[in-house]
Design a protein that fits this description.
9 strands, alpha+beta, eight-stranded antiparallel β-barrel, 160 residues
Length: 160
């Protein structure tokens, strides 16, 4: 009788823990949620798009494709600024074309953001001595404003 009672208590505890772990979704970080979507930079030669969806990031234009990445991680500086880190899935080749077999694929890259609102953001891809790093930790140390990687920001609006 004692074993049955303990088994039932154990089963009830297990169900309760399962509901807590899987049944109640924790709220997502508001910055992550605000960055999700397609951002458009309107230019004289067409639009440039930055698409953040789930854990992926894509940069492309009306008439071209550019870089893409996954394993997206955000490091906040403030509520409206920070750095997005991605592991390249598509990057630039030596001949300035983009492919999934380019040398930087599988390595880490960074995009800085600032002035984030629900409808606008300023974005800057890292540009400087390195085009990627082998690890996320190296990317966090290398691709910084202080190291001069983010000089030019694109002013973007949320696509409708």
């Amino acid at each position: 009788m004692k074993n049955i009672r303990y088994s039932r208590l154990f089963a009830i505890a297990l169900v309760a823990l399962s509901l807590l772990a899987f049944g109640c979704k924790q709220p997502e970080d508001s910055t992550y949620t605000s960055l999700q979507g397609t951002w458009v930079e309107a230019g004289s030669s067409g639009n440039t798009y930055y698409k953040i969806e789930g854990s992926t990031f894509k940069n492309y234009g009306d008439t071209y494709t550019s870089y893409e990445g996954e394993d997206l991680e955000i490091e906040k500086i403030s509520d409206t600024a920070g750095t997005i880190f991605i592991k390249y899935t598509v990057s630039m080749n030596a001949d300035y074309t983009y492919s999934a077999t380019a040398p930087d694929v599988g390595k880490w890259y960074a995009i800085s953001y600032k002035n984030l609102t629900d409808n606008s953001v300023s974005l800057s891809g890292a540009y400087g001595n390195l085009t990627s790093t082998d690890t996320l930790e190296e990317a966090k140390k290398e691709f910084t404003i202080e190291n001069g990687y983010f000089a030019y920001y694109s002013e973007c609006k949320k696509a409708e």
